[in-house]
Amino acid sequence: MQLRSKSKFSIIPYQSTHQELLLNIFDQNVPIYFGANERIYFQRFLEHQAPLDSNYFTVIYTPTDTVVGSGGFYILDGSDEAHLTWGFLNPELHSTGVGSLLLKFRIEAIRKLEIAKYVVCETSQKTFMFFQKHGFVLEKVVNDYWTIGLDLYKMRLDITLVKEDSLVDIQSI
User: Fold this and answer.
1) Where does the pLDDT of residue 90 fall: very low under 50, low under 70, confident under 90, or very high at 90 and above?
2) How far is CA 50 from CA 21, 33, 71, 147, 150, in A?
3) What is the fold of 2-171?
């Protein structure tokens, strides 16, 4: 799947050539949005899981063909929950609408699979209001979960309540 839009951004399936660029962007989000201790987990994900996963995506700024972020999801067999994974952007793009574009893209991709009824997000106190703005409901808070000072905010979205016209148009590749 890829984003079909007239915007200056495209969302494409992750490629291993994106790894170093994404690790660089990840580092720019430490320590505000991620703990430094999480980098090794993200690196392992990129090396071992993402290349096999058709549900992990890279955000590209198309005028310069620049990698600016990534995000994906997974659904466990037999589950009615899709879990968002490793979603983030270059900090210069925070509060520009690109994060909303990536989130809406993932929700629409999940909806098109017709498997999950819920989307689960495990985030922090730094970004939970972003997800709340998109209809996610806070379920649980665990202090110092990600690292000292960075709490877990577990949130859930009932995908059946999301208006289709509020999402982005995607197509299969």
Assistant:
1) very high
2) 14, 21, 10, 24, 25
3) Aminopeptidase (3.40.630)
